[in-house]
Design goal:
The chain is α+β, with helices and mostly antiparallel strands and 135 residues long. The chain has 4 helices and 3 strands. The protein has a 3-stranded mixed sheet with strand order 1-2-3, with helices on one face. Strand 1 and strand 2 form a beta hairpin. The longest helix has 17 residues. It is elongated, with a radius of gyration of 22 Å.
Length: 135
C-alpha cells in the first residue's frame, strides 16, 4: 500500500489545499496550481512505511497563511495510507512570480478576467468646464 505514495499523488493532495486569494480572484487554485511547491521527497521509513518531506513557498513573504498551509499539508498527507511521517517546511528562498502558476490555471484565470472585463459597463470620462467667474 505504501507504494501508492508518489510525487504525483502528493501534488494531487496538496492541490486540494486552496489558496484563499485565488478564491477572491474568482478562480480557486490549490497549492500546486499556484506554483507554491518547491520540493517533494518520499522515502522509506525502514519499517515498510513512507515518509514525505514537502517544501513550499508563499506568494508573498507577508502572507499569513503559512501556518494554515503547513497544518493542512501535514494533516492531509499524514492521512495517506502507508505514510508514517510528514515534514513540511517553508522555502525561504522562493521568490514567487505569476509565471510559476500552472499553465492550465493561468489560462483559466485569463479567461475569467477577460469575461469579467467584458461584463463591465463602458465608462466614459466626465469633464467639467469652468466658466469664467466660477471659483
Amino acid at each position: 500500500m505504501s507504494g501508492d505514495v508518489t510525487e504525483d499523488r502528493v501534488r494531487e493532495v496538496l492541490n486540494t489545499i486552496v489558496d484563499p486569494c485565488s478564491i477572491t480572484a474568482g478562480v480557486p487554485a490549490g497549492m500546486d496550481d499556484m506554483g507554491l511547491i518547491s520540493d517533494i521527497r518520499i522515502s522509506d521509513d525502514g519499517t515498510g512505511g513512507r515518509r514525505i518531506g514537502v517544501k513550499f513557498g508563499l506568494t508573498d513573504a507577508t502572507c499569513m497563511l503559512l501556518g494554515a498551509f503547513s497544518n493542512e499539508a501535514h494533516e492531509r498527507l499524514g492521512a495517506l495510507p502507508g505514510v508514517t511521517g510528514v515534514e513540511v517546511t517553508l522555502d525561504t528562498e522562493m521568490e514567487w512570480t505569476p509565471d510559476m502558476l500552472a499553465p492550465h490555471y493561468r489560462q483559466r484565470l485569463a479567461e475569467h478576467r477577460a469575461e469579467r472585463r467584458a461584463r463591465l459597463l463602458p465608462l466614459t470620462a466626465v469633464t467639467s468646464a469652468r466658466r469664467s467667474g466660477d471659483h
